[in-house]
């Protein structure tokens, strides 16, 4: 069974099995394979692909790398934290102290004041890069600015945050 030159039987057996082994999750492997199909379709509209199966395998490998890069930005919660148990005292419920919560709230408010002082575009670039996790090239495309301007905006935000941290914590 072929679709745009790709042997679907091969894609959903051999390629999917290979992706499943690498991700150790069949659901993630399906997501990666389907993202690879989308990228393949977008590329095949622009260029003529001589070896579609080999090209799809390469695209799937690139999607897999992107998946791991994106996943590396997040730290998984341990079972103790997920269940609300403190690791050193399994019977106690995890609850931060009032002082800790007040300190966190003050720090977040200070951070928000610093970010509010940044120019709008600089603040937007910082948010997209550091909070939402977009790549600089993606941000440049999304905002319609050059990659150089994205780097400058991000640098300005980071320098302002560093200066504020040094002023608060000498």
Brief descriptors of the model:
170 residues; two-stranded antiparallel sheet; 73% helix
Task: Give a short overview.
With 170 residues, the chain is mainly alpha-helical.
Would you mind describing this structure in some detail?
The protein has a two-stranded antiparallel sheet with strand order 1-2. Strands 3-4 form a two-stranded antiparallel ribbon. Helix 1 (8-23) crosses helix 2 and helix 2 crosses helix 3. 73% of the residues lie in helices and 6% in strands. The chain is elongated and about 65 Å long. The chain has eight helices and four strands. The mean pLDDT is 84. It is mostly helical. Strand 3 and strand 4 (89-93) form a beta hairpin.
Oligomer type: single chain
Number of helices: 8
For the largest beta-sheet, the strand count, sense and barrel status come to: 2 strands, antiparallel
Helix content: over 70%
Order of helices and strands: EEHHHHEEHHHH
Shape annotation: elongated
């Amino acid at each position: 069974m072929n679709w745009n030159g790709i042997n679907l039987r091969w894609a959903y057996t051999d390629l999917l099995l290979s992706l499943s082994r690498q991700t150790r999750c069949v659901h993630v492997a399906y997501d990666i394979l389907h993202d690879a199909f989308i990228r393949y379709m977008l590329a095949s509209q622009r260029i003529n692909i001589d070896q579609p199966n080999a090209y799809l395998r390469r695209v799937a490998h690139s999607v897999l790398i992107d998946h791991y890069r994106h996943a590396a930005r997040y730290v998984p919660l341990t079972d103790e934290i997920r269940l609300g148990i403190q690791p050193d005292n399994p019977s106690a419920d995890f609850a931060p102290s009032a002082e800790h919560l007040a300190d966190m709230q003050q720090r977040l408010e200070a951070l928000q004041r610093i970010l509010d002082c940044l120019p709008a575009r600089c603040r937007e670039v910082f948010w997209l890069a550091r909070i939402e996790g977009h790549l600089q090239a993606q941000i440049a495309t999304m905002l319609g600015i050059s990659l150089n301007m994205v780097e400058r905006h991000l640098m300005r935000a980071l320098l302002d945050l560093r200066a504020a941290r040094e002023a608060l914590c000498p």
